[in-house]
Amino acid sequence: MPLTFADPSAEAIPLHLVETEALDSFLGDLPPRAAATARTLGFSGALGRSVILPGEDGTPEMALVGYGSASERARGRFHTAAAVPALPEGVYEIASGLPEDAAESEALGWLLASYRFDRYRTQGTIAAQLKVPAGVDPVRVEAMATAEALTRDLINTPASDMGPEELETALSDLGQEFGATVTAIVGDDLLAQNFPMIHAVGRASPRAPRLLEMTWGTAGPKLTLVGKGVCFDTGGLNLKPGSSMGLMKKDMGGAATVLGLAHMIMALELPLQLRVLIPAVENSVSGASFRPQDILTARNGETVEINNTDAEGRLVLADALALAAEDPPDLLVSMATLTGAARVAVGPDIAPFYTGDEDLAAALWAAGGKASDPCWRMPFHEPYEAMIEPGIADLDNAPSGGFAGSITAALFLRRFAGDCRYVHFDIYGWQPSPAPARPKGGAGQGARALLDALPAALGL
């Protein structure tokens, strides 16, 4: 669903963002009638509060939206969006109170507050529209908002309607929109073309596994995005308990986020060569399931001992990363809802990432704050390499002991990235409770930070 700004020619209601500490000064500058109305309605400048002040004819003359205090704003993001659902129908234009360095984030938050997942149930719509604030690039912000809506829609869709074939359709639709080329390797053709671990993970499901690929752009630096597309994860023969299986429709969140990032790149016509690789599978249970203690041989020849069939995401990513490394890009990115250990480390709101490139790490750190897309660097801790080497095979897909689960998974993936400049994101892909501009449900993480970091990372 496209999320867009109001028609720039539309008549708009002036909207003022008012900090709590500036409330008395602001009201003191208003006509006495307007100031008295604001006080009577209890407007305090608190985050999420709003009032409409009528003119003498009773029609809205201006809107006041609380912008809280600096300390309150430091504990969240998309502050203006908190008031959007309560604003009456109309077009609004921010007239004062918007810090220049927050303009893009607040504009994006307003658009994201309009998102609704209405495939299965009619949802109420947001009637308040925003004119593009001064200094904001509408094409860029609308691209980010629409990309996030795409990611959320894909994650929110249950596995009954979002299997490997439907994920292929989503990629094909995206490719068709921007003139990209999309191909798929399906079922037993994966074995014929040497993607044995993607096939092994997906072969138990009647929904055929596949490797999806999209290419776009013919000039500029090469960027390859790899997204985990496990459309549902039962855990395989190491079956998850019901309490852990409930959110497994989101286990393709890495693929959904990669599609969102690809949308932004193509919509903004970045001067680069884009390649997207998505191993799309369903990790099911049947007589064809791969088993604990099986040893699989990956595309690059590495052997992998299976010590837990519920650590399947790194297996399918490994084959895709090995393919990516055969034509080394200038930057290789993987995104996956990979480990619970990452959530224990940083919670659901932060996207941890791994890279050995100091300049890229610095760019991502800075971009996360600027793009309201918080990221945190985690270490490729070399001493833990021994933990992923079981002895009977080259690699162990699920080291015992329970320590450093996100780090060992990242080290496992790095073995397949060759000599590429590489960054891996271990995301959650889900908003567990509603927040301004972020309803409960699917959520993209890391994509906007990457978008913001790409110019520095690739010299664009």
TrEMBL record:
Any one Pfam family here would be: Peptidase_M17_N_1
Domain called Cytosol aminopeptidase: residue spans? 308-315
Highest rank taxon of the organism: Bacteria
Residues in the signal sequence? none
Instruction: State a GO cellular component annotated for this protein.
Output: cytoplasm
Which keywords fit this entry according to its UniProt record? Aminopeptidase, Hydrolase, Manganese, Protease
Question: Which Gene Ontology BP annotations are present?
Answer: proteolysis
Alphabetically, the GO molecular function entries are: manganese ion binding; metalloaminopeptidase activity
Q: Which CDD domains match?
A: Peptidase_M17 (cd00433)
Q: What is stated as this protein's family in its record?
A: Belongs to the peptidase M17 family.
Query: What's this protein's name?
Result: Leucyl aminopeptidase
**Which organism is this entry from?**
Poseidonocella pacifica
